[in-house]
Specification:
Length: 127
């Protein structure tokens, strides 16, 4: 999955109506995430989720483990500042938090928290 074209093909296969194909592709993504510590794959998954609302991608994102938690929170933080993606990205964050990941304690120190507070303040002053 090192090449972007490969990732794109696999992403489209995640939404396959065939359960076996989805399971195989999900396993391939999880295997890649366990061996690749960088942010690129997580960023691609978040972008794809925002474009498609893909439930299999949501499942992968909500089950991320360290060190990908930082990449996910950074990407969410990036999108919280954009009005066009704010609602979708907050929905993703809600899904993640509801599952109470082992790294939930990191939320209080993440740059995302001040961004969320700033977003709430802005919303409060507009109303």
């Amino acid at each position: 999955m090192a090449q972007q074209a490969n990732v794109g093909e696999l992403l489209s296969m995640l939404d396959s109506p065939t359960l076996g194909v989805r399971d195989d592709v999900t396993a391939a993504f999880k295997e890649n995430l366990s061996s690749d510590r960088g942010p690129m794959l997580v960023n691609t998954l978040v972008d794809y989720y925002l474009e498609t609302n893909s439930q299999p991608v949501l499942h992968i994102l909500t089950t991320l483990q360290e060190p990908h938690d930082k990449h996910l929170l950074d990407k969410i933080n990036e999108y919280v500042g954009k009005a066009a993606t704010r609602l979708s990205i907050l929905s993703l964050l809600g899904h993640v938090i509801r599952l109470q990941p082992s790294w939930k304690h990191k939320l209080s120190q993440a740059p995302l928290l001040p961004s969320l507070l700033k977003c709430l303040k802005r919303h409060e002053t507009v109303q």
